[in-house]
Amino acid sequence: TFQDGGEEVEEGAVYNVTLKKVQIQQAANKGARWLGGEGDQLPPEHTVRQYETSKIRAIKAGTLEKLVENLLTAFGDADFSYISIFLSTYRAFASTRAVLELLLDRFGNLETSSHGEVATLNSFESEVVLRAEIASVLRAWLDQCSEDFREPPDHTCLLKLLDYLKNNMPNSDMESKVQNLLKQFQNQEVETVDGFCSTSSSDLVDGEELEISSPEEFSSFQDHVVAEQLTYMDVMLFKKVVPYHCLGSIWSQRDKKENRNLAPTVRATITQFNTVTKCVVSTILGTKELKVQQRAKIIEKWIHIAHECRILKNFSSLRAIISALQSNSIYRLKTTWMCVSKDILLMYEELSEIFSDHDNYLTSRELLMKEATSKFANLDSSEKENQKKSQKRLQLQKNKGVMQGTVPYLGTFLTDLIMLDTALQDYVEGGLINFEKRRREFEVIAQIKLLQSSCNSYCLIPDQKFIQWFRSQRHLTEEESYRLSREVEAAADTNILSPKSQKSMVKRISTLFLGTDVITPPKEHPPKSSPLGGSSGESTDSASVSSCEFNHSETEDVCVTPISSPEDPLKKGSIGSDKGSGSNKGSISDKGSGSDKCSIFDKASGPDSGLVSGSTTCSTSKVLPVYNRQNGGACIIRVSMDGINDSVYKSILITNQDRIPDVTQRALLKHNLEPDAVEDYELVQVISEDKELVFPRDANVFYGMNSHVNFDFILRKKA
Predict the structure, then answer these.
(1) Closest C-alpha to 588, from 536, 627, 632
(2) Domain residue extents for the chain
(3) β-strands 48-62, 427-428: how paired?
(4) How many Å apart are CA 231 and CA 213, to the nearest integer?
(5) Strand (E) positions, 89-203?
(6) CA–CA separation, 538 vs 585, rounded Å?
(7) What is the tens place of the pLDDT at every residue in 63-104?
(8) DSSP strand E in 295-388: where?
(9) Which helix (H) or strand (E) holds 256?
(10) pLDDT exceeds 70 at position 213
(11) What rounded mean pLDDT belongs to the chain?
């Protein structure tokens, strides 16, 4: 049993104390045999019950010096996960050089005193223990986070570490390991972005060398081959993701000019996601001469490929394909969708449901937890024919005797980490680093690491013919795909938004991942007619956010902007019915965050909070601030800049003590603008399309805001 032991405060550190009571069974030698025990063991009815209480100290906050010192004492305090948590998150508040210098120079200096006194036996033993503790930390660092030492071309930290090992641990295994790592770094070509996408994205710059492939060429690839090759590429990129690149404090800084190369491993996975999405759109719309039935066959093929990705537990390409099929230019092809068979539409509907935004994407979260480390996918289909096909394909996979890993949709983790970074303070009273925040972040990082480890189970061989085809595709721009969509399908509804008016919905990398930067829904009302039979008050052109990476200053192109899933034909009426209403719907990020929603921020963060096996139920304890809900005197709002990327929001934590100048200053900082210009701006809450709430200069934002609408604000220069 555990009991809260309160806090212990030292100079430069605060510790949480937990008392653990453990039952110990002991038997006195005397009389044990007389009572019928064998050897020294008493029979159960005569067992003597004794209890032992041990103290667990977990650092809650501290200076950098104390946090590094705690690396050497954590095992003694029974805080066994501390080293892994620190190594996975320290880049949010310190550099590799700073931590290494503290560890080696302050705690690792094992020389005798300047007076030349002979070390006593006790001090010698202490040095041996200290050397062993430092060696343990360094070994864990090299095993878990070797990328921290990649500093081309000099690799100064690695050389410093090597020098320390030569002096204090000569000819050790660790010295050899560091030498090999240094050679590996020096021999490797320095790459800004690793993997397939570096070649793919560079090739796509020159459109003259690329062409839209013929439908016959695409059809020549078997469905399972395409899925396996997409999975192969996704696995190679996901395994290279450096987990600390996903931290909210790091990922949220990528928009700054000086950070163009920040988090390259995450950018690479997103580029691959967008490439898959654009490839789907190009193959469907690229050839105008196709008949409706032929185009429907291509859609059916991509749905089959998505299903194969599901069998392979590749949720990244699965979501990319679904997002493309939900894009405006594909979704509006109502005549084409009418030619898609009923069974295939059912399969598509079930695959789309995986990524439903209901309850903070609860379905996809639960599925990922369930299958993260399972050997094979767990396929349940409500349609008998699809279930038979699924089980047959799954049995073929099992017969091969090769286990499968799991490739996640990385955006879920980036969302959680950015929201945690927004909701929790970096420093607490006294200027101490808030390490409780890092423990919460590690819960997400640990899931990423576990899934990366599971990817080693894949046994996929690259098909150069397909990879070459995939790389050589010319991708359509948003305008091109929309124009072609209008040409191949009779434009029955002239009210569908054009891509130019939807540009406010497309933004760079993070829109896909619903992080601190979120896209606003378009101000225009969606069309009242539904291309796929939407009804019950839902508009099929409702805007949602997908995997889009777009920045006018970068070469990375616009990706498609998906809309609501065309799941209606079988649920809500016949295809092509005209019953949908024009209700203006928000983006994905506007959903799943209401007062009745459950998110990761509602869960308690106890010592046993899970990796991927934790409970998904809501807990009322230790509720963190979330978007669109006021909790415990705090909440998260989204602020955009009027006239400057006004479609880009930044998430900001406010409390019931914050007034207009405080919030304005934080918003300017988040948007990389001068915080001194507070007096030049006014803060406005968007109530509806034609209503705004303008705050007086010294108003309390928390109490003054309208809590019954979205917490969306605009920072506008005063007239």
Answers:
(1) 627
(2) 63-110+128-188, 219-480, 634-717
(3) unpaired
(4) 21
(5) none
(6) 8
(7) 999 999 999 888 777 788 999 999 999 999 999 999 999 999
(8) none
(9) none
(10) no
(11) 74
Confidence at residue 589, expressed as pLDDT on a 0 to 100 scale? 34
Q: How far apart are CA 377 and CA 315, in angstroms?
A: 11
- The Cβ of residue 383 has, within 10 Å, a number of other Cβ atoms equal to 17
Give Cα separations from 584 to 242, 263, 525, 581, 712 (angstroms). Answer: 39, 36, 6, 9, 16
Burial class (CB in 10 A: 0-12, 13-18, 19+), 228: buried
Q: Which class is 219-480 in CATH?
A: mainly alpha
**What confidence tier does 402 reach under pLDDT thresholds 50, 70, 90?**
low
Which residues have CB under 8 Å from 117's CB, separation 6+? Answer: none
More confident residue, 451 or 648: 451
Do residues 706 and 691 lie in contact, with contact meaning Cβ atoms separated by under 8 Å?
Answer: no
- Rounded CA separation 337/332 (Å): 9
Residue 644 three-state SS = strand
**DSSP 3-state of 498:** coil
Residue 622 tokens read as 């230790």
DSSP for 510-557 reads: HHHHTSSS-BPPPSSPPPSS-TT---TT--TT-B---S----TTSS--
Does 76 or 465 have the greater pLDDT score?
465
Spacing of C-alpha 15 from chain mean position: 29
Q: What is the three-class DSSP state of 622?
A: coil
Q: How far apart are CA 268 and CA 241, in angstroms?
A: 9
Question: Under 8 Å CB-to-CB from 429, ≥6 apart: which residues?
Answer: none
Give the pLDDT of residue 112.
36
Q: Kindly report, residue by residue over 123-148, the tens digit of the pLDDT.
A: 667 778 888 889 999 999 999 999 99
Nearest to 71 by CA among 55, 47, 88: 88
Q: How far is CA 37 from CA 29, 449, 527, 685, in A?
A: 10, 48, 83, 77
Which CATH number does 63-110+128-188 carry? 1.20.870.10
634-717: in CATH 3.10.20.90: yes
Do the beta carbons of residue 432 and residue 12 sit within 8 Å? yes
**How far does Cα 235 stand from its chain's mean position?**
16
pTM equals 0.69
